[in-house]
């Protein structure tokens, strides 16, 4: 009988860098392990390097010297839109610096004209761009129908605001939508108008949604089919090993599963169906929620939409905006997406009864009040339970609302990058200095020892993990470079936990993801530097060197992560897939 080998041969041994385990009880002062060993996609050793080599190194074991770089758990997207990330990479880039170079209406027009001549743009029914921000345009205004008529009068044109809650169309676009001076504003939306009552081209919320649906449905089928694959590639390049498709229509949820059935996703995708559609469905189980992934995809629950965008000044507040948009009445506070609180309560109760996790888009504190009331009533009806309900964005959450979250077991997931991208806009236009200082109030959650997460909400922002970290630690604004509410800054470790172990907890996956511990999946990311040990203002300069999913590299900064012959999921997705906006 042959003697057993003195070792179990591992696939990879990582050493020679700063290993940040991010265990739930970890502290910044904790000693760093010397090595991490991976076998069959699972972490089997965290600790001494010599023990790792003697116990796990065999002839086929790859020994990886990190060369001083940092090894962290793979990042987990607490809220975003996979198809939207792909859409972001497909449309004309109307973003301002540092993610683009649009500075005024003229440069916006030039980007749209150029995109219209690209292979995708030339075959698209609409000319479409994404990401303009009126706060960053020299004119300080949204483009109008006349501005977009200068791009084209023979094709409909849509310029999508960076919030994805507003947009502007040209005259032909208005005609395609059937919007005239006689068209009433839809519930939960606004058609902005000129003094003569004619639409000026700018559309808010539910008035904007049909424009985004019609425009994106008119993209070439090859572009629609590639949205998922582009989303996967982009997310992986920022270190994400788990992403979200947040707020999918039932049709798109099926398309996501169909894509995975053809080619498994290389990163895990957690999907949430639109709550209004899912709770009204006559199907026995329209969501199919599960804790298990099937070929890289699982549905977890539903997403509700209760208000709009603070930067677009459509979020629902309890106090008036600092400066109200043109044409709105004195004391304007935005507006709810759902007027009737009974409808909100019914959506939450239905989800709880069917075992669906609930995510709710709530930016304004009035919308948060509406949600807290519904969650409280639904919890009383359903009884106690570990539901991990999530308040998405929670930009203007008051301290008493954070306390209500703690009492009800609601996890706040902050869009922390608002402090960078729109901090100055909040200070001067949206909320004023005092209220703006407390947007994305993560410190209030930390002080109460709550679990909170942070997200990128792509395509509203790039799926930039490093920006998520930097924005929480420094809260430095984009233009004026001021620290917005320094009392709300958190430590680098808290920031890292918000996109690793805490995000895993949000997904009920903390036992298999989110930290570097024995028995967990080898979902890892290699960074150019350790965010816990460098100066806070240097975190923004960290780069993602490599992203590893269950021991396999899916992105490398030095080599092509995906060859031209390596087909990503989505390339053969059913052609009825349609991106549905509202982030």
TrEMBL record:
Domain Amidohydrolase: start-end pairs: 62-554
EC number: 3.5.-.-
Official protein name in the record: Amidohydrolase
Presence of the UniProt keyword Magnesium in the record: no
Keywords from the UniProt entry: Hydrolase
GO molecular function: hydrolase activity, acting on carbon-nitrogen (but not peptide) bonds
Listed SUPFAM superfamilies: Composite domain of metallo-dependent hydrolases, Metallo-dependent hydrolases
Top enzyme category: hydrolase
Domain of life where this protein originates: Bacteria
């Amino acid at each position: 009988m042959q003697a057993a080998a003195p070792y179990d041969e591992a696939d990879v041994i990582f050493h020679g860098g700063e290993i940040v385990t991010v265990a739930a009880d970890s502290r910044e002062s904790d000693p760093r392990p010397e090595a991490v060993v991976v076998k069959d996609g699972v972490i089997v050793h965290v600790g001494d390097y010599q023990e790792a080599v003697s116990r796990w190194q065999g002839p086929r074991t790859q020994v990886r010297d990190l060369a001083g770089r940092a090894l962290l758990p793979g990042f987990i997207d607490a809220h975003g839109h996979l198809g939207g990330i792909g859409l972001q990479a497909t449309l004309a880039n109307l973003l301002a610096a540092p993610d683009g170079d649009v500075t005024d209406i003229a440069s916006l027009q030039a980007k749209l004209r150029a995109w219209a001549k690209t292979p995708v743009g030339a075959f698209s029914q609409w000319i479409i761009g994404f990401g303009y921000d009126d706060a960053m345009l020299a004119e300080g205004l949204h483009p109008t129908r006349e501005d977009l008529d200068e791009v084209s009068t023979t094709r409909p044109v849509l310029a999508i605001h960076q919030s994805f809650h507003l947009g502007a169309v040209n005259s032909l676009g208005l005609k395609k939508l059937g919007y005239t001076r006689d068209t009433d504003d839809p519930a939960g939306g606004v058609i902005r108008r000129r003094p003569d009552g004619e639409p000026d081209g700018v559309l808010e919320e539910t008035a904007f949604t049909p424009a985004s649906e019609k425009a994106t449905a008119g993209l070439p089928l090859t572009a629609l089919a590639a949205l998922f694959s582009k989303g996967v590639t982009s997310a992986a390049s920022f270190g994400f090993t788990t992403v979200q498709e947040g707020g999918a229509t039932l049709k798109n949820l099926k398309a996501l599963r169909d894509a995975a059935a053809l080619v498994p996703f290389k990163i895990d995708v957690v999907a949430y169906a639109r709550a209004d559609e899912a709770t009204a469905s006559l199907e026995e189980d329209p969501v199919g929620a599960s804790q298990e992934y099937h070929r890289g995809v699982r549905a977890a629950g539903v997403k509700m939409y209760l208000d709009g965008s603070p930067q677009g000044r459509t979020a629902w507040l309890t106090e008036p905006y600092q400066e109200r948009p043109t044409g709105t009445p004195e004391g304007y506070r935005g507006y709810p997406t759902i007027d009737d609180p009974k409808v909100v309560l019914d959506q939450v109760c239905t989800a709880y009864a069917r075992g669906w996790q609930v995510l709710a888009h709530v930016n304004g504190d009035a919308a948060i009040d509406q949600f807290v009331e519904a969650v409280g009533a639904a919890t009383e009806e359903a009884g106690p339970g570990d539901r991990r309900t999530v308040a998405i964005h929670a930009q203007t959450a008051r301290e008493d609302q954070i306390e209500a979250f703690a009492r009800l077991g609601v996890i706040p997931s902050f869009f922390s990058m608002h402090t960078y991208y729109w901090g100055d806009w909040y200070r001067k236009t949206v909320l004023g200095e005092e209220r703006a200082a407390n947007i994305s109030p993560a410190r209030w959650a930390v002080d109460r020892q709550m679990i909170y997460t942070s997200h990128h909400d792509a395509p509203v922002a790039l799926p930039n993990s490093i920006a998520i970290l930097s924005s929480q630690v420094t809260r430095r604004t984009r233009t004026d470079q001021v620290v917005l509410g320094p009392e709300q800054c958190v430590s680098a470790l808290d920031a890292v936990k918000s996109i690793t172990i805490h995000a895993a907890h949000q997904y009920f996956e903390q036992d298999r993801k989110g930290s570097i511990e024995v028995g967990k999946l080898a979902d890892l990311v290699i960074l150019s530097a350790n965010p816990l040990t460098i100066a806070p203002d240097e975190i923004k300069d960290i780069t993602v060197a490599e992203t590893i999913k269950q021991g396999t590299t899916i992105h490398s900064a030095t080599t092509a992560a995906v060859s031209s012959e390596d087909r990503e999921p989505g390339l053969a997705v059913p052609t009825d897939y349609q991106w549905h906006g509202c982030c």
